[in-house]
Automatic annotation (TrEMBL):
<dbReference type="InterPro" id="IPR003583">
    <property type="entry name" value="Hlx-hairpin-Hlx_DNA-bd_motif"/>
</dbReference>
<dbReference type="InterPro" id="IPR012340">
    <property type="entry name" value="NA-bd_OB-fold"/>
</dbReference>
<dbReference type="InterPro" id="IPR000085">
    <property type="entry name" value="RuvA"/>
</dbReference>
<feature type="region of interest" description="Domain II">
    <location>
        <begin position="64"/>
        <end position="141"/>
    </location>
</feature>
<keyword id="KW-0238">DNA-binding</keyword>
<keyword id="KW-0547">Nucleotide-binding</keyword>
<comment type="similarity">
    <text>Belongs to the RuvA family.</text>
</comment>
<comment type="function">
    <text>The RuvA-RuvB-RuvC complex processes Holliday junction (HJ) DNA during genetic recombination and DNA repair, while the RuvA-RuvB complex plays an important role in the rescue of blocked DNA replication forks via replication fork reversal (RFR). RuvA specifically binds to HJ cruciform DNA, conferring on it an open structure. The RuvB hexamer acts as an ATP-dependent pump, pulling dsDNA into and through the RuvAB complex. HJ branch migration allows RuvC to scan DNA until it finds its consensus sequence, where it cleaves and resolves the cruciform DNA.</text>
</comment>
<feature type="region of interest" description="Domain III">
    <location>
        <begin position="152"/>
        <end position="208"/>
    </location>
</feature>
<dbReference type="GO" id="GO:0000400">
    <property type="term" value="F:four-way junction DNA binding"/>
</dbReference>
<dbReference type="GO" id="GO:0005737">
    <property type="term" value="C:cytoplasm"/>
</dbReference>
<protein>
    <recommendedName>
        <fullName>Holliday junction branch migration complex subunit RuvA</fullName>
    </recommendedName>
</protein>
<dbReference type="GO" id="GO:0048476">
    <property type="term" value="C:Holliday junction resolvase complex"/>
</dbReference>
<dbReference type="InterPro" id="IPR010994">
    <property type="entry name" value="RuvA_2-like"/>
</dbReference>
<dbReference type="GO" id="GO:0005524">
    <property type="term" value="F:ATP binding"/>
</dbReference>
<keyword id="KW-0227">DNA damage</keyword>
<feature type="domain" description="Helix-hairpin-helix DNA-binding motif class 1">
    <location>
        <begin position="107"/>
        <end position="126"/>
    </location>
</feature>
Length: 208
């Protein structure tokens, strides 16, 4: 129903944010790691997943596609609901989680809020051979991973809207941020955004 939201951050709470999209406020539940990158008045782009329960609809949001993918895979584990899945994302990045599963470190996984030892064991057992995350993200490469901040994500979307390949646009934006020495998450500054876009387009044109 909702693939993503682009709008203004109205409020940021302990486990959710309200995103104003053309005058309509959407309550989006997010991990603590993602919420730390948001502030009131900021323009943001959030990937979303809608969870339907018997008596409610809840919208979950993510600043990076790898987090969204991990959330979906956690929900496939028997007995794991969205609250626990979000607790995992609040405690570990996708790369950290993949490392924990690979090492079968149950003790480390139980540090996630709301997750006991049995639940951690079940996650490791069921995802050990099924975990599929973007390999570039798992390696932690800044040059290749999808941007983890909303401003960079918006720039990628803008390039895709102009006909550029999504993966190449992600790589170009990240390389521009790195080459220009811009701090992440990127500030919502039109001048900085223009510099990054200009550099990203030039790098892609040279590649073509």
């Amino acid at each position: 129903m909702f693939a993503s939201l682009t709008g203004t951050v109205e409020t940021v709470g302990a486990d959710s944010a309200v995103i104003d999209v053309n005058g309509v406020g959407f309550l989006v539940r997010m991990s603590a790691l993602d919420l730390a990158h948001l502030h009131t008045g900021q323009q943001t782009h959030v990937l979303t997943s809608l969870h339907v329960a018997q008596d409610s609809l809840s919208l979950y949001g993510f600043l990076a596609r790898q987090s969204q993918e991990l959330f979906a895979q956690l929900l496939k584990v028997s007995g794991i609901g969205p609250k626990v899945a979000l607790g995992v994302l609040s405690s570990f990045t996708p790369a950290q989680f993949a490392d924990i599963v690979q090492r079968q470190d149950t003790t480390a996984l139980t540090k996630a809020q709301g997750l006991g030892r049995k639940g951690a064991q079940k996650i490791i057992l069921e995802l050990a051979n099924k975990l599929v995350l973007d390999s570039d993200s798992a390696s932690g490469s800044q040059a290749d991973a999808q941007p983890a901040d909303p401003v960079a994500a918006q720039l990628v979307d803008a390039m895709v809207g102009m006909g550029k390949d999504a993966k190449q646009a992600q790589e170009a934006v990240n390389k521009a941020i790195e080459a220009l020495g811009i701090a992440t998450p990127m500030p919502a500054d039109k001048s900085v955004e223009s510099q990054v876009l200009s550099y990203a387009f030039r790098s892609m044109d040279r590649r073509d």
